[in-house]
Design brief:
- The protein has 209 residues and is mostly beta strands.
- The chain contains one helix and 14 strands.
- The strands form four sheets. A five-stranded mixed beta sheet has the order 2-8-7-4-5, with no helix packed on it. A four-stranded mixed beta sheet has the order 9-14-13-11, with no helix packed on it. A three-stranded antiparallel beta sheet has the order 1-3-6, with no helix packed on it.
- A hairpin with a 7-residue loop joins strand 13 and strand 14.
- The longest helix has 4 residues.
- It is rod-shaped, with a radius of gyration of 31 Å.
- The termini are far apart.
């Protein structure tokens, strides 16, 4: 009696980019009339691992991958037909492991209202990846005071006192986004009537007249 081997078709799908620390989720499709179960071996960056107990149809797998590389199915065996082999192509998948975005660390700052100065928040930000965006997340800020791409903040537009929060946001679309926050305390300018050339501001709150 001659054993007639079933046909096998293998398909492998998965994300081409994953966040560092996350496993690679794979969808392995085995199309065949054989009941199986099946065993496969795959290589990941030169290391061989075994996937036993696979069934006909879709198999959802989760594979630990500490770094970018390639996963390739290299062998296939059918427990119901151990003498049969898979003659078709073996699928593979290339992927990249993406590092977490770093928004860095912001600061708490205080300034006088209507201060004629341009504040470079990006120059104060520490430990951040480039390419993020800036946004006002709390407080009343006039339009055009903050440049969302550079972090330049025009303090002269803040004519009233109050609390303002500005965020620097990093999002690579793969990992959890990260944000850093600047809390700005805008201080009122004191008023005084004098007969001499005296001036009070929120940094000099006392003069002798």
């Amino acid at each position: 009696t001659t054993l007639e081997c079933p046909d096998y078709t293998l398909e492998l799908e998965g994300a081409t980019e994953i966040c560092e620390g996350s496993p690679l989720d794979l969808a392995l499709l085995i199309e065949t009339e054989s009941p199986g179960p099946f065993t496969m071996e795959y290589t990941y960056n030169g290391l061989t691992n075994t996937l036993p107990g696979l069934q006909a149809g879709m198999n959802n797998l989760s594979v630990p991958v500490p770094g970018s590389g390639s996963i390739a199915i290299t062998t296939f065996s059918d427990s119901s037909a151990p003498a049969c082999i898979h003659n078709g192509p073996f699928p593979s998948l290339d992927f990249d492991v993406v590092p977490f975005p770093a928004a860095g660390v912001g600061k708490d700052l205080a300034f006088c209202a209507a201060l004629d100065s341009l504040l470079d928040l990006s120059g104060i930000l520490a430990g951040a990846d480039a390419g993020g965006t800036w946004a006002v997340t709390a407080g009343d800020v006039p339009g055009g005071a903050l440049d969302a791409s550079t972090g330049q903040f025009n303090l002269a537009k803040l004519t009233t006192s109050g609390a303002i929060q500005i965020a620097y946001m990093q999002n690579n679309g793969i990992c959890q986004p990260d944000s850093a926050f600047f809390n700005l305390d805008i201080l009122p300018v004191p008023l005084v009537e004098t007969s001499g050339p005296y001036r009070l501001d929120c940094e000099t709150d006392e003069v002798v007249v």
